[in-house]
Amino acid sequence: MPKHSRRLLRGTVLICALALGATACGGSDDGGSSGKAVSEADVQAALKKGGTITVWAWEPTLKQVAADFEKEYPGVEVDLVNAGTNEKQYTALQNAISAKKGVPDVAQVEYYAMGQFALTEQLTDLKGFGAEKLSAQYSPGPWNGVKAGGDGVYGLPMDSGPMALFYNKKVFDKYKIEVPTTWDEYVDAARALHKADPKAYITNDTGDAGFTTSMLWQAGSRPYKVDGTKVSIDFSDQGAKTYTDTWQKLLDEKLLAPVTSWSDEWYKGLGDGSIATLATGAWMPANLASGVKEAAGDWRVAPLPQWTAGGKAGAENGGSALTLPELGGNKELAYAFVEYANAGKGVQTRVEGGAFPATTAQLTSQEFQDTKFPYFGGQQANKIFAESAANVADDWSYLPYQVYANSIFNDTVGKAYVSGTGLADGLKAWQDASVTYGSEQGFTVEK
Predict the structure, then answer these.
(1) Which CATH architecture has domain 163-315+396-446?
(2) What span is annotated as the signal peptide, if there is one (predicted)?
(3) What are phi and psi of 275, to 5 degrees?
(4) Which of 35, 307, 319, 404 supports an S-S bond with 160, CB 3.0-4.6 Å?
(5) CB 128 within 8 A of CB 37
(6) Is the CATH number of domain 12-160+319-364 3.40.190.10?
(7) What is the rounded distance in angstroms from the CA atom of residue 413 to the CA atom of residue 422?
(8) Gap between the Cα atoms of 126 and 106, Å rounded
């Protein structure tokens, strides 16, 4: 699952694209098909002919999908390779693209990283396969993610991370704390909890780029605007102010556990109740069930608190797509696998394996919504996740160099967690550093 302290070789993608021309890294004479119409008959012919495709992905449920695909199409072999999680795979993928050697036919790419590969024409535009006709199958956040701020379709959504509030009911009941429905109520709950037990915190937060952008998304902030190589970055809008004014109270009053997510201390805090909530993506249940077994039955799920009473705004946190790198081969066969995995029979297989879907058919199905989670005391949590997914605004954009921007988050915004720097000032520093970097890479950047 997402761990938002990501790194990538600095500048490699964009220097290549903007200094040498957009197609210098992404074109080839033997594999590219961006913009070329491919008929369903072409895809079926490729399946009949068979062959081998290489798929780079870390998502575990794809193993069964690949086996089922091979069984349905006996002439096809799927070589599923785990080249590393998120940033490790992106580095390996960029190195293969630069060398024009060993590029996979299919690659898993998270939504926040999609733009850096799409802008430089290193991903095949799947509109050539008619992929835009599948748009109605997906919830708005993931479909927006594969558009990468442009008109193309650079992958098919594989999963999503609509946010919800996971909370420790046992702790809340012990201290008679109501489940917060607004972020102001959340701050009040944080105060009440910490006063009742100085060792307990409403949540942990040591500064996380993915969490921060998700919170800004929900608050209505739209700091990034992207039009090709024209970029604007502005963290001073009302949505950003709404977020920083509220979250600053938690920082100033030391109401956040200074514990890094995914650490041993974090798992311990989730288990013993000293970390009482998590505002995160719908992929979290499996992590709690496997990593915090001792607290089974203690936790529940609630809708994400709102910035305005009575609101229903959602946001995404995490999620990825399957893409076709432009230098990969076997385009028709590769697309057939991607469509099978993310729009066909493979979707249900992945859901049954524990993945959280991006497809509305699964999200709205009675079977999915009625699923009871033993870990959450038998709660039908998917109903909350599905509603959150439906309420995600689809106009959010990431930078085409978001991977780099996230890598400098701790050097800018992160100072608000370890010094007297205000959160708003930290965002301004992040903005300035991102503007400088973008300008150095050849973007026209406004702020």
Answers:
(1) 3-Layer(aba) Sandwich (3.40)
(2) 1-24
(3) -115, 110
(4) 319
(5) yes
(6) yes
(7) 9
(8) 12
- Give residue-wise pLDDT tens across range 214-266: 999 999 999 999 988 999 999 999 999 999 999 999 999 999 999 999 999 99
Which one, of 171, 223, 178, 179, lies nearest residue 197 by Cα?
A: 171
> Is residue 322 a contact partner of residue 158, using CB atoms and an 8 Å limit?
yes
Q: Is 236 helix (H, G, I), strand (E, B) or coil?
A: coil
Backbone angles phi, psi at 203, to 5 degrees: -165, 175
Residue 207, both tokens: 């500064």
Instruction: List, as one string, the DSSP characters of 35-86.
Output: T----HHHHHHHHHH-EEEEEE---TTHHHHHHHHHHHSTTEEEEEE---ST
What average pLDDT does the chain have? 91
Beta strands, E only, 282-362: 299-302, 320-323
**Residues 59, 64, 67, 72, CA torsion sign:** negative
Q: Specify whether the CB–CB gap between 25 and 98 falls below 8 A.
A: yes
Tracing tokens 């761990």 back to the chain, one arrives at 3
Within its chain, how far is the Cα of 403 from the centroid? 12
Q: Which residues pair with 226 in a beta bridge?
A: 231
Cβ atoms 343, 357 nearer than 8 A: no
* 395-415: pLDDT as tens digits: 999 999 999 999 999 999 999
Q: Start-end ranges of CATH 3.40.190.10 in the chain? A: 12-160+319-364, 163-315+396-446
User: Within 10 Å of residue 173's Cβ, how many Cβ atoms?
Assistant: 10
Cα distance between residue 317 and residue 305, in whole Å: 15
**Which single residue is written with the structure tokens 């993608």?**
13
324: left (phi over 0), alpha (psi -120 to 50) or beta: beta
Contact 433, 408 (CB under 8 A): yes
Distances (CA, A) of 138 to 58, 59, 129, 143: 22, 19, 17, 6
- Comparing C-alpha atoms, which of 84, 7, 80, 105 is closest to residue 333? 105
How many whole angstroms separate alpha carbon 90 and alpha carbon 95?
8
CA nearest neighbour of 205 among 158, 163, 255: 255
The token pair at 310 is 């009575």
Residues 306, 307, 312, 317, Cα dihedral to 10°: -70
Pick from 65, 57, 182, 175: nearest CA to 107: 57
What pLDDT, on a 0 to 100 scale, did the predictor assign at position 30?
A: 36
pLDDT interval class at 14 (50, 70, 90): very low
- Measure the CA–CA gap between 324 and 334, rounded to whole angstroms: 7
